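pls ignore typos typing on phone
6-O-phosphono-beta-D-fructofuranose + seq
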Amino acid sequence: MTTSMTSSIPMLRERPAWAALAKHYDEIRERHLRDLFAEDRMRGERLVAEGGGLFLDYSKNRITDATVTLLVQLAEQSGLRERTEAMFSGERINVSENRSVLHVALRMPKGTSLIVDGVDVVAEVHEVLDRMSSFAERVRSGAWTGHTGKPIRNVVNIGIGGSDLGPVMAYEALRHYSDRAMTFRFVSNVDSTDFVEATRDLAPEETLFIVSSKTFTTLETMTNARSARDWALAGLGDEAAIAKHFVAVSTNAEKVSEFGIDTENMFGFWEWVGGRYSMDSAIGLSTMLAIGPGRFQEMLAGFHDMDEHFRNTPFDRNLPVLLGLLAVWYGDFFGAQTAGVMPYNQYLKRFPAYLQQLTMESNGKHVTLDGTTVDYDTGAIYWGEPGTNGQHSFYQLIHQGTRLIPVDLIGFGKSLNPLRDHHDLLMSNVFAQAEALAFGRTEREVRDEGTPEPIVPHRVMQGNRPTNVILAELLTPRTLGALVALYEHSVFTQGVIWTIDSFDQWGVELGKALASRIVPELESEDAPQLHHDSSTNALIRRYRVMRR
Ligand code: F6P
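k done
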């Protein structure tokens, strides 16, 4: 499958900037951040960028000005400008699924328009947003009542992947702004424990289920939704109750109504919204119920701020482009296999998990858009934990281990819960970690501190470990939107360099198909002969015995 968008772009290794970067890498791979900072006293003030209310310090990366110039050339030679315009204008850049990729339309302001295949998608987006808003107002005010006339106090979102990770991350991130009289729960795992624990203390007459699934066929979600219906019926005793206690978010009206949810109570979105890019679509209904429509709009405005920044800012000052190019630099030249993202904000505790799907489902690909197997590394493994907790756990390996792990440290100027000196202590750790990782501690410094000789090598910290520091004034719906869009567009930038399809996810299909084949084999010991490999056959037989 060759697309007109990329047919004129040479394979990655044949782009002139790639060869230049390979040569440049050999020249600077041994250079230490200590020297780079010593040579340029303004480095920390020069290698920064701002956009969408976020500030990025990328000075503690193993780069020089020449590196940035070459990476920007690589972006140009990879067609990033053209591909970005293609995305924003609704071209079918998701080639393997033949779909447009228009999450950016989800946050275009009311009154603007984007015509795709003769349809104004922005008008459609706002039609759904208006319906969501009026529904959210009714639930939050108590005007929408459950079957017995009681107001809804509990909201349970049932979904998985993009239909769960975005909503749960946003709920946790914006909890400060949420209606504390309401309880929000998120059920994703097909392990029944997830559903049982999430609902055990909830009263059915006050509980609303949002069944969130783009396809409305996902095994985990449909299984949980069926259990939710049983649970609600057991508590309320009447089929008619379903209409008051279940709403759906989906692109598949037929399946929604087959399940028994009135499509009047369905909030739609479109095939051009990828699951992992959907938290700002109707999939964000739980977020809107928690923080209210006004604040949801603020979050959308934050996304849009970053969209505009990404689309209009020169690459060398463009936050998502810089982050994306640095990810390519470390992954493909330094051979970094993983990347850490450490938010120094407890509200962002689910942000790394959210980013894992965004980054790894998007860029975990082994062929280019035209199906050629790549001969370079693509998406890194993303992981992280909120600071400062990680410091007392795995940071040791980042500081003194043998692997290079570039890390993003995210911090805020103010705390939403100021208490004594907590916030200064928290932020001092952001700055200290970035400093320690970059500059380390030399043998001489360790010795000068009076360290006994045999301990000296243990206390030496090589430094030269790269970080990006991302700062915003306060965690608000708007900054959250900008932060998510920052990573969305960074992922896109990386995908464009690698010429892969960042918007499909064929890799998750095989496991799903095999699991559905195995289910009947577990249920019955008289099932047809097992025809798997010897290990799978033996595991199934053992499980049959264990489940008796
Ligand atoms: O894991 C594969 C996947 O298709 C994700 O891309 C998606 O976010 C998730 O499953 C859930 O899909 P759906 O919203 O259709 O239930």
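Residues 477-498 form the longest helix (22 residues). Residues 160-163, 213-215, 218, 221, 275-276, 361, 505, 508 surround 6-O-phosphono-beta-D-fructofuranose (CB under 6 Å). more later
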